[in-house]
Amino acid sequence: MTPLLRTEGLAKAFTLHLQGGAHIPVLAGVDLAVHAGECVALSGPSGAGKSTLMRCLYGNYGAGAGRILLRHRGRDLDLAAADPRTVIEARRETIGYVSQFLRVIPRVATRVIVAEPLLARGMGREEALSRATALLRRLNLPERLHGLPPATFSGGEQQRVNLARGFAPGYPVLLLDEPTASLDAANRAVVIAMIREAKAAGAAIIGIFHDAEVREAVADRLFDVLPRQDAA
Amino acid sequence: MSTTLLEAQGLTLRFGAIPALLDVSLDIAEGEVVAIVGESGSGKTTLLRVLSGLLHPDAGSVRWLGEDVHAMGEAARRRLMRTAWGFVHQNPRDGLRLDVSAGGNVGERLMAVGARHYGRIRAEALAWLAKVEIDAARIDDLPRTFSGGMQQRLQIARTLVTRPRLVFMDEPTGGLDVSVQARLLDLIRSLARELGLAVLIVTHDIAAARLLADRILVMWRGRVVEQGLTDRVLDDPQHPYTQLLVSSVLAA
């Protein structure tokens, strides 16, 4: 079976021109493959490059070398080489990313923020908003907050908005960066259930889970990201 | 793939010995929001003027749906400006008629493309004033009695009422309150999604570019030094100037 996402010899380094051109290698030779219905947890110490790898997989960081092959529209798309329009199309249809930070246009209602990826896929406004509402309810975000912009929400509330937005479209490939970091036990359980359902529906999931309980509940295997020793 | 609307190749323009544009190429498709960022004097506004046919380049070409913008003649270009294109100026007083009522400013653009029914024109004008959050009670007031932010919102309503396919925006949110800026950013994004409007926006506001643009071009001394997916250019900048630009911004 073809993996939904795989990397071949992925490498990433940063060149900091403002620091005298310092060269910081972070990833090298990463070969990762994730299949449908599988959840892979990235493991390794802080600073090893787990988040960097996630960002490369989403195309947020450019790959320095290697390929990132995403199963998109029935073929392998190399995200490392794809032009911006194709990356945007892949993000709309195939790959989702729940980051630790919610970055949205101010003054837009939470419900609309969650519905946005659905609207972008062409879903009708009413259906998109009702799906958004259902997800926010499931994540126990009080109804009175749905019509407000999330700028003044607590960290945990913002994280749930981000989760609702990431899970709403049912992406075939989903990247989760510390999805339960600011959540209480009850909401952690909701997120565990949502991840399991996504897997059962055939999604390939890659996550960073510092919370051992969550990791054990959802991950099928670990993928080690090791720190580079030969940093400049 | 959505239709490519505007396509520029190898634009170069010198003012005397000073290169204002050096070999700039870009294209924009239906429904795309593209931001051009860079410091003052980097050539952003000049580029917008060349793309919209206001200035002739020394070399290179600009094509609108395949047709050479600089070869089409003044009348044809003006027709484009009235119909398929919109231009939102940095200073709203450059894009408004200050001695015509707010409703008139919006309705006039509609009449220029053939609308004649007074009731419909007024209703459309009111709908657009509501979209940009201008109180309907101000429809008969002169824009000179408006604040700068209201004038800018009125200019945007006036530009968008005729449903252009491409809008050029030159620092449109420059002088606005943060909350009004946010409303405009949201409006521009929804129009791009719902009507397939393409927007080419010149700004030095990196945070606004991040929230608004699909793609970004970074200009420095008349050249495009870096371009690509907005979040990648801002989070993983490659060129020294882009790294400086991004690191100089608070929480972009």
Oligomeric state: heterodimer
Helix and strand pattern of chain B? EEEHEEHEHHHEHEHEEHH
Content-based structural category of chain A: alpha/beta
Taken from the alpha-carbon principal axes, the silhouette of chain A is globular
Specify Rg of chain B, calculated over alpha carbons: 18 Å
Widest sheet, order of strands of chain B:
6-7-8-3-9-10
Report the major sheet of chain B.
Answer: 6 strands, mixed
- Please give the count of helices of chain A: 7
What is the terminal separation of chain B in angstroms? 30 Å
Q: Approximately how much beta-strand content do the residues of chain B carry?
A: 25-35%
Mean pLDDT of chain A: 95
Q: What is the element string of chain A, with H for helices and E for strands?
A: EEEEHEEHEHHHEHEHE
Uncertain regions of chain B: pLDDT < 50 for 5+ in a row?
none
Q: Report the helical percentage of chain B.
A: 25-40%
**What is the share of helical residues of chain A?**
25-40%
Can you offer a commentary on this structure?
The complex is a heterodimer of chains A (232) and B (252). The termini of chain A are far apart. Chain A has helices spanning 50-58, 84-93, 110-120, 125-138, 155-167, 185-200, 212-218, and strands spanning 5-16, 22-30, 33-34, 39-43, 65-72, 75-78, 95-98, 173-177, 204-208, 221-224. Chain A is globular and about 50 Å long. The model of chain A has no long low-confidence stretch (mean pLDDT 95). The longest helix of chain A is centred in the C-terminal third of the chain and has 16 residues, at 185-200. In chain A, helix 3 (110-120) crosses helix 4 and helix 3 runs parallel beside helix 5 (155-167). Chain A has 232 residues and is α/β, with parallel strands linked by helices. Chain B is of the alpha/beta class and 252 residues long. Chain B has helices at 44-51, 74-82, 102-112, 118-131, 148-160, 178-195, 206-212, 230-235, 240-247, and strands spanning 4-15, 18-29, 33-37, 59-64, 67-68, 85-88, 166-170, 198-202, 215-220, 223-229. In chain B, the strands form 2 sheets. Chain B has a 6-stranded mixed sheet, sandwiched between helices. Chain B has a 4-stranded antiparallel sheet with strand order 2-1-4-5, with helices on one face. Chain B is globular, with a radius of gyration of 18 Å. The interface between A and B is medium-sized, with 22 and 28 residues.
